[in-house]
C-alpha cells in the first residue's frame, strides 16, 4: 500500500492510546498506538490492524469430531493468533469448511467448532487465517471418529426353555477406529438371571415362568464417543407347557384255530404332560402277528412303545383251543394272553368241551400327568369253539355269547391329537363256529375281525394299537396293528432339534399346534 504524506497530520504520524484513534479515518490512515505498542493501519475492513502483523502458525490440535452428532469442538495450538482469526478444515477432496465459530483465547490458542464434515474426506487439514489474511496450516490434523456399525441383526435372538443355562453368540458391531463395548441402554433390562458382558455376550440361567414370555431390550454399542443403540428380544417357554402325549403299544394277534381276539396295546394319554428340555427315546411297538391254523397256537404279544420313561405295553395275544400247543408265555391253552402292564388282555380260546377262563387281565401303569388304559379279554365258549373278544382301551372284551357267535372286542378310545378324530387301541373280535369257516366277529371300534365275510378284514388298522381278529380254521388269524407315538404342543414351543433317520414320522396339520406322529422305528430325539 502507498502511504502519502498528505495522510500524516501535524508533520508526523498521530500518536496516542487506543481511545485516541482518529474518528472517521480514511482507508490507509496510519496511527501510532502507544497503548498497544504498535503501528496501525486503517483497513478497508473498517478496523485498525497491526501494520507489521506476523504470520500465524498451527502446531497441534486436541479434541474429537463425532460422526454420530456430526459435530466437534477442538482446541488449536500455535503462534501469532489474533482476535478475529478464524479456523478452516480442508478435506481430501479440497473443499474448505469454515468453523461455525472460532474463539480467540490467546496468542497461542483458539477454540473452533465444526459441523458438516464427513469421514469420507478425512484426514482434514486445519488452517488458521488472521484478519490480515496471513495464515498458517497443519496438514492431516483432524480425523472423524466413526460410529460403530451393527453386524447383529435386530429382532429375536431365539426361543429357550425356562430355567436353562444359555450363552448366546456375542453381539457384534464394528468400528474403523475404536474398540466397541456393549451395555444395556437406560431403562432396558434382561430377564432375571441373565447378564450382558462388555464384549457383547448374553449368558446366565433363565427364570422360572408360568407362561410363555418375550423379553425386549435395547443394547448400546459404543466406542467411547459414539453410541449406537439396537433393539433385541428373546423368548422363554415354560417347561409345563400344554403338551399332549399319546403312546400306543402294538396290539396282540388273533388266536389260531378257534382263537380269541388279540388284546389292544396299552394306551397312555396326557393332555398336559410335563415335557422337559432333554433327550427322549422314542420306540414304536410292532403289532403281534396272528398264528397259522396248524399247529394251533395263541396269537403273539404286541411289542411295547416308549417315550422316555413312559411305556405303553403291547397287548396280549388271543388264546387258542385246549388241544393246541401250549403258549411259550406260560398261559394255559385256553386262556387269552395276559396283557403286559398297561396293555389289554387277549380273548380266551374256544374249546369243544369246556368254557375257557376269561382272557388275560391288564396291569395298568401310571405316570405323572398321564393316564394308562388297558382292560381284560373275554371268555371263549364251550362247544363248537367260539372265541372271546380281546380287551380294548375303552372297555373289556366280551365273552362269546353262544356257540355260533364270537366275542366282540373291547372298544377303543377316540382322540383328535393330530387334528383329525381317530380311534385307538380297540380289541380284536373272537372267532365263532361255522362250517364255512368265517372270520371272527367284529371288534370294538377300530379293531379287527369283520364278522360275517369269510377270511377278510382280519388285520387291525396300522398305527392304532388295535388287536387282530381270531379265526375258525381257514388261513391265519389277524395281525395286531402297530403302535404309534404322537406329540402335540403349542407352536410357540421349540421344535425338536434332532430326529434320527431311524424313526419314521410325519407332521399332521393342527391349528395352533406343532404335531409329530412317529409311526415306526426307534431312536432318541432332542427337545
Which runs of at least 5 residues are low in confidence (pLDDT < 50)? Answer: 324-335, 435-444, 450-457
Strands, total number = 34
Number of helices: 0
Q: What fraction of the residues are assigned to beta strands by DSSP?
A: 25-35%
End-to-end Cα distance, whole Å, is 92 Å
The average pLDDT value, as a whole number, equals 80
Shape: rod-shaped
Tell me the count of domains.
4
Structural class: mainly beta
Helix amount: under 10%
Compute the CA-based radius of gyration.
Answer: 47 Å
Describe the biggest sheet?
A: 9 strands, antiparallel
Structure at a glance:
The chain is mainly beta and 527 residues long. It has strands at 15-16, 30-33, 38-42, 48-50, 57-62, 65-66, 71-79, 86-90, 96-98, 101-106, 109-115, 124-129, 135-142, 144-145, 149-150, 155-161, 165-167, 173-174, 181-184, 194-196, 202-205, 213-222, 227-237, 244-248, 267-270, 279-283, 305-307, 310-312, 371-373, 413-415, 422-424, 484-490, 503-506, 513-526. Strands 24, 25, 26, 27, 28, 29, 32, 33 and 34 form a nine-stranded antiparallel sheet that branches. Strands 5, 6, 7, 10, 11 and 14 form a six-stranded mixed sheet that branches.
Overview of this protein structure:
The structure is a single chain. The chain is mainly beta and 527 residues long. The protein has four domains: 5-50, no CATH class; 57-145, Immunoglobulin-like, CATH 2.60.40; 149-237, Cadherins (Immunoglobulin-like); 240-527, no CATH class. It has strands at 15-16, 30-33, 38-42, 48-50, 57-62, 65-66, 71-79, 86-90, 96-98, 101-106, 109-115, 124-129, 135-142, 144-145, 149-150, 155-161, 165-167, 173-174, 181-184, 194-196, 202-205, 213-222, 227-237, 244-248, 267-270, 279-283, 305-307, 310-312, 371-373, 413-415, 422-424, 484-490, 503-506, 513-526. The strands form eight sheets. Strands 24, 25, 26, 27, 28, 29, 32, 33 and 34 form a nine-stranded antiparallel sheet that branches. Strands 5, 6, 7, 10, 11 and 14 form a six-stranded mixed sheet that branches. Strands 1-2-3-4 form a four-stranded mixed sheet, with no helix packed on it. A hairpin with a 2-residue loop joins strand 27 and strand 28.
Amino acid at each position: 500500500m502507498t502511504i502519502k504524506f498528505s495522510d500524516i497530520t501535524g508533520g508526523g504520524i498521530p500518536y496516542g492510546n487506543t481511545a485516541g484513534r482518529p474518528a472517521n479515518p480514511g482507508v490507509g490512515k496510519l496511527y501510532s498506538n502507544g497503548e498497544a505498542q504498535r503501528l496501525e493501519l486503517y483497513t478497508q475492513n473498517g478496523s485498525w490492524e497491526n501494520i507489521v502483523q506476523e504470520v500465524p502458525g498451527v502446531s497441534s490440535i486436541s479434541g474429537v469430531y463425532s460422526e454420530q452428532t456430526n459435530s466437534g469442538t477442538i482446541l488449536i495450538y500455535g503462534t501469532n493468533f489474533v482476535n478475529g482469526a478464524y479456523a478452516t478444515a480442508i478435506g481430501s477432496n479440497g473443499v474448505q469448511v469454515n468453523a461455525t465459530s472460532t474463539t480467540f483465547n490467546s496468542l497461542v490458542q483458539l477454540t473452533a467448532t465444526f459441523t458438516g464434515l464427513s469421514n469420507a474426506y478425512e484426514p482434514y487439514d486445519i488452517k488458521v487465517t488472521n484478519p490480515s489474511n496471513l495464515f498458517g496450516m497443519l496438514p492431516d490434523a483432524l480425523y472423524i471418529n466413526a460410529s460403530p456399525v451393527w453386524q447383529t441383526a435386530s429382532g429375536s435372538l431365539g426361543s429357550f426353555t425356562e430355567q436353562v443355562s444359555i450363552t448366546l453368540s456375542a453381539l457384534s458391531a464394528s468400528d474403523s477406529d475404536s474398540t466397541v463395548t456393549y451395555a444395556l441402554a437406560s431403562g432396558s433390562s434382561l430377564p432375571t438371571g441373565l447378564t450382558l458382558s462388555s464384549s457383547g455376550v448374553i449368558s446366565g440361567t433363565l427364570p422360572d415362568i408360568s407362561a410363555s414370555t418375550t423379553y425386549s431390550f435395547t443394547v448400546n454399542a459404543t466406542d467411547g464417543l459414539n453410541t449406537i443403540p439396537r433393539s433385541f428380544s428373546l423368548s422363554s417357554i415354560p417347561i409345563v407347557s400344554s403338551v399332549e402325549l399319546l403312546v400306543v403299544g402294538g396290539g396282540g394277534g388273533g388266536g389260531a384255530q378257534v382263537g380269541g381276539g388279540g388284546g389292544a396295546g396299552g394306551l397312555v394319554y396326557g393332555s398336559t404332560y410335563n415335557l422337559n428340555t432333554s433327550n427322549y427315546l422314542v420306540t414304536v411297538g410292532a403289532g403281534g402277528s396272528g398264528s397259522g391254523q396248524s399247529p394251533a397256537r395263541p396269537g403273539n404279544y404286541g411289542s411295547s412303545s416308549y417315550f422316555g420313561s413312559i411305556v405303553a405295553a403291547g397287548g396280549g395275544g388271543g388264546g387258542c383251543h385246549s388241544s393246541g400247543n401250549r403258549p411259550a408265555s406260560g398261559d394255559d391253552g385256553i386262556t387269552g394272553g395276559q396283557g403286559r402292564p398297561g396293555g389289554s388282555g387277549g380273548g380266551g380260546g374256544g374249546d369243544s368241551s369246556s368254557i375257557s377262563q376269561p382272557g388275560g387281565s391288564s396291569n395298568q401303569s401310571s405316570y405323572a400327568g398321564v393316564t394308562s388304559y388297558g382292560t381284560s379279554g373275554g371268555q371263549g365258549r364251550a362247544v363248537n369253539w367260539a372265541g372271546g373278544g380281546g380287551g380294548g382301551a375303552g372297555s373289556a372284551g366280551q365273552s362269546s355269547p353262544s356257540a355260533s357267535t364270537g366275542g366282540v372286542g373291547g372298544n377303543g378310545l377316540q382322540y383328535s391329537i393330530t387334528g383329525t378324530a381317530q380311534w385307538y387301541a380297540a380289541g380284536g373280535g373272537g372267532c365263532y363256529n361255522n362250517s364255512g369257516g368265517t372270520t371272527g366277529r367284529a371288534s370294538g371300534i377300530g379293531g379287527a375281525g369283520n364278522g360275517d365275510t369269510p377270511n377278510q378284514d382280519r388285520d387291525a388298522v396300522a398305527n392304532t394299537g388295535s388287536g387282530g381278529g381270531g379265526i375258525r380254521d381257514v388261513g391265519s388269524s389277524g395281525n395286531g396293528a402297530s403302535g404309534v407315538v404322537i406329540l402335540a404342543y403349542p407352536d410357540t414351543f421349540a421344535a425338536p432339534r434332532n430326529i434320527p433317520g431311524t424313526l419314521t414320522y410325519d407332521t399332521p396339520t393342527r391349528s395352533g399346534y406343532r404335531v409329530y406322529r412317529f409311526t415306526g422305528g426307534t431312536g432318541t430325539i432332542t427337545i
